Structures are given as structure tokens and as C-alpha cells.
Amino acid sequence: MRRVGLLGGTFDPVHFGHLRSAIEVREQLQLDELRLIPCARPPHRDMPGATAAQRLRMVELAVGQGGGLQVDDRELQRQRPSYTVETLESLRLELGADVALFMVLGWDAFCGLPGWHRWQDLLELANLVVLQRPDYDLEVPEVLKDLLAARSADQPERSHGQIICLSQTPLAISATHIRTLVGNGASPRFLLPDAVLDYIENEGLYRPSTED
Ligand code: ATP
Fold first, then answer.
1. Beta bridge partners of 33
2. What region holds the Cytidyltransferase-like domain (predicted)?
3. 23 CB less than 6 Å from ligand 1?
4. C-beta of residue 118 within 8 angstroms of C-beta of residue 88
């Protein structure tokens, strides 16, 4: 069965925490491909510092640096909030039922799952891959403890419906920290690809507003 991994995110900006995790998941689960899917209109958070087109461009620049990752821009094609369940439905329509889908989530995103639109449908469409995230010491909600007990698996065997917890090289990098560094005039170099940092500098992203 073909195996496709999906890492959705705001990617404001994309950084080595995302990219290293993506490569390690692809290798550990022997995926045929892993797609980064930038979110156009994040339903759960404040407006990003960069536009959807700028965040997509940064992901394109990052995957262009090698590593064999792909970009999927379908959420930018939709004129509505970027609900993951609808993204998975559209991927199922495109790829068919015989492909195993693996939706990758960091621990923080997984703990927030019960707030997502139609979250209980997600496992009908894909497997979940949960990654540890250093510096995010969040308590998992009860409802997810039950789900983990019922659906956890060591080895991916199905096209959907399983939860796989993986450990990977822990990288305590967040987009919030990178935006804060840039906003303070400090350098985020070596937390993200050089091509993405050059783009941030050329576009003047994440700098404090000069009107303040
Ligand atoms: P922000 O700080 O703006 O919230 P972020 O760094 O968490 O951003 P997102 O684009 O929100 O980045 O993350 C997309 C996905 O990648 C989420 O599932 C998140 O948990 C995961 N992720 C982000 N950074 C890491 C990291 N350093 N290690 C593991 N997973 C990560």
C-alpha cells in the first residue's frame, strides 16, 4: 500500500523543527512521500505575521533545499477556513481509498485536537502520527487518553484509524521564538534554512511596526 505523510501547519515561518521531524517520520514509517501543507486561514489562532502566499513561498524555499519533501498548496485554493478534515477529504478524493495516509502532529497540536472541526472524523480518513515536542509540557485531555488507549499502534498497518507515537531528534524550535528574535532585531540563523531567512529579510517580515 502506498504511504503518504502529511504535515500541516501555519509555517509562520517554517523551521528545522518541522523539516527534521518530516524527514525522520518519512524514514521511520517508510513513507513514499511526505507533503507539507501550509494552512491558508488557521481556524484556531491569531492572524499569522506573514501572508498565506509568503508562508507557502517559505515552505517552497525550504523543500527546495533538498531532503525529498513535497509541498501541497490545496488549502490556499479554498476560500474558507482551513479545516484539516476537509483537507483529508480532498486528499482521499484525489488519492483514493487504497493509500495509507499519515497526518503528523506535534504533541501541542495533538493535545488541542478536541477543539478541531469534526475532529472525530479525522481517524476515519487518516492515521495520526504524534511527535514529542520539547518545551511543550501539556497534559493530554481525558478524551484523548481514551483515544490513545483504543487506537495506539506500534507499526502502521492500516490506511487510517491508527495512532502512532514516534520519538525523533528533539528540537526545541518554534516559529513564535523565531518571530520574537526577528522582532527584537536578533538573528534566528541556524534555526531555519538560510533561504527562508533570506526571504524573511528581503520581505521585511516579523519586524516591529514602525508606527509604534
Ligand atoms: P507557532 O510557534 O507559531 O505556534 P510552530 O513552531 O508550533 O508555530 P506550526 O506551523 O504551528 O509551528 O506547527 C505545525 C506542526 O508542526 C504542528 O503539528 C506542530 O506541533 C509541529 N511542530 C512544530 N515545531 C515542532 C518541533 N520543533 N518539533 C516537533 N513538532 C513540531
1. 4
2. 6-180
3. no
4. no
- Which pTM does this prediction carry? 0.95
Instruction: Please tell me the distance between residue 155's alpha carbon and the centre of ligand 1 in angstroms.
Output: 24
Alpha carbons 206 and 200: distance in angstroms, whole number: 8
CA distance 165 to 102: 12
Q: Is the CB of 84 under 6 A from ligand 1?
A: no
Quote the ipTM score.
0.98
List, as one string, the DSSP characters of 103-136: EEEEHHHHHTGGGSTTGGGHHHH-EEEEE--TT-
Report domain 3-172's class: alpha beta
Is the minimum distance from the CB of 5 to ligand 1 under 6 angstroms? no
90-124 tens-digit pLDDT: 999 999 999 999 999 999 999 999 999 999 999 99
Instruction: Tell me, using a 6 A CB cutoff, whether residue 103 lines ligand 1.
Output: no
Query: CA–CA separation, 162 vs 128, rounded Å?
Result: 6
Type of residue at 92: R
Q: Which ligand 1 atom sits closest to the C-alpha of 170?
A: 28
Q: 3-class DSSP state for residue 55?
A: helix
Q: Which helix (H) or strand (E) holds 24?
A: helix 16-28
